[in-house]
Amino acid sequence: MAARGFTLVELLVAMALLAILATLVAPGFGEYLRNCRRAATVNAIFHTLQAARGLASSRGQAVVLCPSTDGARCSGEQDWSHEMLLIPDEPDPAAADNPPWRVVRSAIASAGQSVRANRDSIRFAALTPAATTATLTVCDDRGPPAARAIIVSRIGRPRISSRDSGGRPLVCP
């Protein structure tokens, strides 16, 4: 009766082939993970902009979306990588006990990513389709070729693009 199983040579050849395949696949998998992280960041920003637009329309009150570093007030900077606050454009003075600040998104960018905008806030008007035009650019360590922009039109509709609003290539800081 013949013995069944693998010889040591067959096992070593199989392991060598597996190692070669793993080294060929690993760089592509890393690129795939970076693309997934970028897509998650872009989608989070896109949906936050849609929510702010919808909130302004449904409540009949203008709202402002702005970046924050402490979760309590707008930072006044064009770096949107940390948190986003959604606030009424004109806070109600009677609501002094309940500050109007609300953290909408926390930890926007993943590690190795940055989100920059050409505005320090975006205002969505109430009852009319009007908003501050803005471009938010998501960059990672791959630079401009892998960057994506979320462009907010005058009517407040966001769209995702690999170019800026003028059709030019994106620039990463």
Can you walk through the features of this model?
This protein has 173 residues and is of the alpha+beta class. It has one domain (8-161): minor pseudopilin epsh domain (minor pseudopilin epsh fold). Helix content is 30%, strand content 22%. The chain has 1 helix and 8 strands, in the order αββββββββ. The chain has one helix at residues 8-59, and strands at 63-68, 83-88, 103-106, 114-117, 122-124, 134-139, 148-152, 158-161. The protein has a 4-stranded antiparallel β-sheet with strand order 3-2-1-5, covered by helices on one side. Strands 4-6-7-8 form a 4-stranded antiparallel β-sheet, covered by helices on one side.
How would you describe this structure in keywords?
single chain; minor pseudopilin epsh fold; four-stranded antiparallel sheet; 8 strands
- What is the rounded Rg? 24 Å
CATH fold naming = minor pseudopilin epsh fold
Terminus-to-terminus distance: 71 Å
Major sheet characteristics? 4 strands, antiparallel
Helix content: 25-40%
Number of domains: 1
| Structural class estimated from helices and strands | alpha+beta
User: Which sequence of SSEs, written as H and E, runs from N to C?
Assistant: HEEEEEEEE
CATH architecture: 3-Layer(bab) Sandwich
**Level-1 CATH class name:** Alpha Beta
Shape: elongated
What ranges have pLDDT less than 50 throughout 5 or more consecutive residues?
A: none
**Annotation field: number of helices:** 1
Could you report the average pLDDT, rounded to the nearest whole number? Answer: 86
Q: How many runs of DSSP E, i.e. beta strands? A: 8
Strand order of the largest sheet: 3-2-1-5
